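Problem 12. The chain below contains 243 residues. Write out its predicted structure in token notation.
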Amino acid sequence: DKVLPELIEPYELRAAKLREFLEDVKPSLCYDIVPLPDPFGPSVTDPDLQCLVVSEETRRGGEAVNRKRLENGLPELALHEIQLMKDPVRSQNEEEKISSSSLRQRLLGTLLQPPRQDPALPLRPYVIGLTGGTGSGKTSIAKLLGHLGAFVIDTDKLGHAVYVPGGPAYEPVVAAFGAEILNKDGTINRKVLGAKVFGNQEQLKSLTDIVWPEIAQMAKERVREADAQGKAVCVLDAAVLLE
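Solution.
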């Protein structure tokens, strides 16, 4: 449930940074840093523990620890509550406290590592894949990048183009799903086609096996068009990009 879990550092690195901080604060103490494979960790099984440090927002968790300890035949821990430090530079949409979630959000838009040079790929245009479900903000981001000069490829529009009469997927789709999917003017009725495939994995795969390669080919042609126009960056807006 963490915000931007992709940007959470590996456990080993976080543990090393924590140890460095603790030993900097008080090097005379012995610190035992352990991973928590569940919400409780050793707090409900270690008989040598005496105190649990909590904040106002985690006190209920500390109380849950004590209930578990009693169930396990262990004495309750003393709960020592501390105040959380407020973030003096937080923005309006961030938490009031100093929060790792806010720190990860601030990394958005930051180049975390240089792009890998792949000799099989041309240096220009640099192609960015933009994906996500309905309502995730793809359209807004694509428009913003377009205003900044990127060449935007909308695969929804390509998806419609492959179905039109004369389009690369038109005849294979009609051959696979029958003339009953056609309107009177010969165009494919996408609602009728949709009713045939959605809920039927085999039929849906038959359709995507026909359509997706054609959309991919059209996208590649659009990338070449961007290159011909001298565009440095190309954005591929696709809801099912990874699939």
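Discussion. Residues 126-237 form a domain with the Rossmann fold fold (CATH 3.40.50.300). Students who got a different answer should revisit the alignment rule from Section 12.3.
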